[in-house]
Design a protein that fits this description.
alpha/beta, 314 residues, 9 helices
């Protein structure tokens, strides 16, 4: 096929698929329902195939329409991303940082806020997502912070730090120090990232390392996001086995305490990848040096915790 259907018809078709009907798509696009129907008819004539089916008074995508819509939606998403990058490129004083959501909210964002106070002329865009930037999006992302093994060979990638996990809870739940087995009397909050990433050490691993055998854990609560699990602990819902990097500020503020000082290292490291094409901009070079130092400082704090023998962290 040497040509594409009309772009406007494709845009309307994508909206119909997203909204689930003509009326909702018309509201989304700011046009009449009749105009939507006309564009759908035009598209079906162009492709020579019916893409919709009537369900009572509503028009839905049929099986062929759903398959076609998936590809259209991906194409429009890439087009929107490219346009967003074009808009950002108009401002030379900006920085685009992509990171895992919890790493962004609990570790990076507070530090970036401090850094930006020293660079008030810069606009910083923080994108929290589990999705690694695709090749098509790469030129729009200055830095990507992620997690895992086997990703440190690229010349534009460096390990930031290797974290550890430690029990933490609200001081209202437990203000004093507990023996490892005594933690079983409290609800335990855990973090599970599978299948995308290897999860942090589990409570079973933590108790085994503490010499507590034949553990039966009740009142388990499992979160897929570290930030959600940590927030649950702050709200007195239980004891979380959390990454030290993500709770350090909560410990400093008194929102969390460590009831039993026993830490386990994470199975993999956090790392940063940068876009070499961005390095003609001085703010990218400055930010990279600053970020690497933040990672080293975090690693030093983590090493100190892992080396501590007893007593809660301050």
């Amino acid at each position: 096929m040497s040509h594409l259907p009309p772009l406007r018809a494709l845009e309307v078709f994508e909206a119909v698929g997203l909204c689930g009907g003509i009326t909702q798509a018309a509201k989304r696009l700011g046009i009449s329902a009749g105009a939507v129907s006309q564009q759908i008819k035009l598209l079906e004539e162009a492709v020579g195939l019916s893409l919709t089916a009537k369900e009572g008074q509503r028009l839905r995508l049929n099986a062929a329409g759903q398959r076609f819509h998936e590809g259209c939606s991906q194409a429009f998403e890439r087009l929107r991303a490219a346009y967003a990058e074009l808009e950002r490129s108009k401002n030379a004083n900006n920085l685009y940082i992509s990171a895992l959501p919890s790493l962004l909210s609990k570790w990076l964002a507070p530090r970036v806020a401090d850094w930006q106070l020293e660079h008030p002329q810069l606009s910083v865009y923080l994108d929290g997502t589990h999705t690694e930037p695709s090749e098509a999006q790469a030129n729009g992302v200055d830095f990507r912070l992620s997690y895992g093994e086997g990703m440190h060979d690229d010349q534009h990638t460096i390990e930031l730090f290797r974290d550890c996990v430690v029990p933490a809870c609200s001081p209202a739940l437990q203000a004093g120090t507990l023996e490892p087995r005594e933690l079983l009397a409290h609800p335990l909050i855990t973090i599970d990232w599978r299948p995308k990433f290897d999860s942090p050490p589990s409570w079973e691993q933590w108790f085994a390392d503490a010499g507590v055998d034949e553990v039966t854990i009740r009142n388990y609560r499992i979160y897929s996001l570290s930030s959600m699990a940590i927030q649950a602990a702050i709200e007195e819902q239980g004891i979380v086995l959390a990454q030290y990097s993500m709770i350090r500020r909560d410990l400093d503020s008194g929102s969390l305490v460590i009831p039993c000082l026993r830490a386990l290292p994470m199975p993999a490291a956090y790392y940063v990848t940068w876009n070499q094409n961005s390095f003609h901009r001085s703010q990218c070079r400055t930010f990279q040096r600053w970020l690497i130092k933040q990672g080293r400082d975090q690693q030093e704090m983590t090493n100190q915790l892992l080396g501590a023998e007893n007593g809660p962290s301050s």
